[in-house]
Amino acid sequence: MLPRTTLTTIRLRNLPDWQQDLAITASSVAIGVLLLMIGWSPLFEASLAPPPWLHPVLFGCICIVELFRRRAPVTALTIGFALLAADSVFGASMAVLIVFADLLYAATLYGPRQLSRDMVPITSAITIASVGVMMVLTPNVRTAVVTGLAVLPFLVIPMWWATNLRQHKEIASAERTSASQLRRISELGQRAAVAAERAKMARDLHDVIAGHLSAIAIQSEAVLSLGNASPQASRSVLTSVRENSVHALEEMRAMIRLLRADGSGKDETLAPAGLSELSALVESARATGMDIEVHSDIDESVTLPAAVNLTAYRIAQEALTNATKHAPQARARVEIRLLDGSLTVEVVNDLPAASASGNGTGIGLLNMRERANAVGGSLAAGPSEAGWLVRAVLPIMQARS
Fold this sequence. Notes:
By secondary structure, this protein is of the alpha+beta class. It is built from 13 helices and five strands.
């Protein structure tokens, strides 16, 4: 259970600023009245005899000034110092000195930062001035010095205390700002991660849909153009259409299961596509009427990193899909080589005259380049002497590390 004084402090801090200032001023009035009643005024015998009402009036004035200790700390301190100086001429009173100490505290805590930094020389000047005034007004120099030293804690302690509180508040504010910035950076990082994951999903969906469905559309058009002229050729094309449809559905199901997985239980998704399925991809493209030649250095003894294997397959798939769309029934060549720790994938096809000026700025080319960059590789695509060339270089050692 918290002590009663702590509970009172917590309740006071929960009040609005003006109510806190009003409560502090009321406390000063109560303490000051008590000190005036017991005769703690003046603190020393001055050469000038004050009228009986002077100290109470000056005390009332400085209490009114104390009401503005937070809203106008610099002005309140200036007026308070003038009232303290006037009170000191007639011997000074403890009540006025206590209220002035609070004004000094408030100016250090709530005033401008520069004023807080200059409070040490200001307090020193006030102390020296007070001792000088008392030495002039008091016949006994020893009494003046002792009184000045007795007054010194009323000036130094409030300033020291307020300076420490202000430093703690500034440190806490800086930590809150830093925490807010870190939270903002974390939110931006999460948004970037979500955007990157969405881009990856869009890439995968494009590869699945554009690859298989484009092949289905082209093969279906080929069947329609054949009519009843070649039943065997029509059956072969329809078989390829069915295989593309089944593969597309399988990959879509695998992707949906992956997106719906919560990380618990067994992973039931299908293994990602790779170069081992390149032959099926080539056969599907040949079913559209293309003449495709394949040269590959990859056999069962070569183990590729999963990311590179999938990337090479997707690039070959997208390149052949574009070839069947833009250069149907043309010749194409697929080359896959291992050279100097990198896997090179090249797909080149005849470039029809109508497409000679094509610049290949579609989303398929963008997806291929993003996939190559994701594994630390590079991709180039454009017209060449042999036709339209897509060439990807995928580092293997970097992917393994």
